[in-house]
Amino acid sequence: MNEATLYQHGTLALLVPGLLTGTLTMKELLAHGDTGIGTGEGLDGELIILDGKPYQVNSCGEVNVVPESFTLPFANSHFAAYRPLMTVENATKEELHDQVLGLTHKANTFFSILVTGTFTDVKTRAVAKSERPFKSLAETAKQQSIFTRDKVEGTLLGYYSPQVFDGVAVGGYHDHFLSAAHDFGGHLLDFGTVTGDVQVQVFSTLEQHLPADDQEYCEHDFSKDDIQGAIHEAEG
Predict the structure, then answer these.
(1) DSSP for the chain?
(2) I need a labelling partner for 31 at 20 to 30 A (CA). Which of 2, 52, 116, 192 fits?
(3) Domain residues for 176?
């Protein structure tokens, strides 16, 4: 177990043209970490893994624990070894992100944040699972559901990627959310404020795993895709 390693299967770039085949099982992902985020085949919901348990928020807003056979085209995982960084009171999303960077000085490396507390005006989303033939990320992401809560206790799990890796991942922060009651969550679009505890885990190594056995991926020409534009439109 290497707590300084972030494992990533696939890249966000491969989702752009619609390479949405599940090429890694949840069992395989969990071998590389007990904490993480991702999405299922066909962009089947939003995943957040905490304490080794993989929760999926589907497009109906339901929170399910997925089986080991669940497959993913893209995911991050790592073994949790967070260190306390700070407490925040009524911090906006932008303030939270800026304060973490200001205290860690880690803008040029990968790290994860874990924020537990009370969130207001939370807005999340989950995409409906699409079937073959898969459409582009932009088209598939249109079939998303938006969920809101005025006030909710929960956990923000996010990953920060350096801008030089934009396309491999989201340059900057990529956050998911799960309520303490396990009845609300998804890809975190925004929130009003958060009051709670902030922990950080810095990675010195990125272990990038690619779906080398997937013929569609191996034969695709990414030079024709607007990778950054599509990612930021879909993930914003």
Answers:
(1) --TTEEEEES-HHHHTTT-----EEHHHHHTT-SEEEEEETTTEEEEEEETTEEEEE-TTS-EEEPPTT-EESEEEEE----EEEEEEEEE-HHHHHHHHHHHH--TTSEEEEEEEEEEEEEEEEEEPPP-SSP--HHHHHTSEEEEEEEEEEEEEEEEEE-GGGBTTB-BEEEEEEEETTSS-EEEEEE-S-EEEEEEEEEESEEEEE--TT-HHHHH--GGGS-HHHHHHHHH-
(2) 116
(3) 5-235
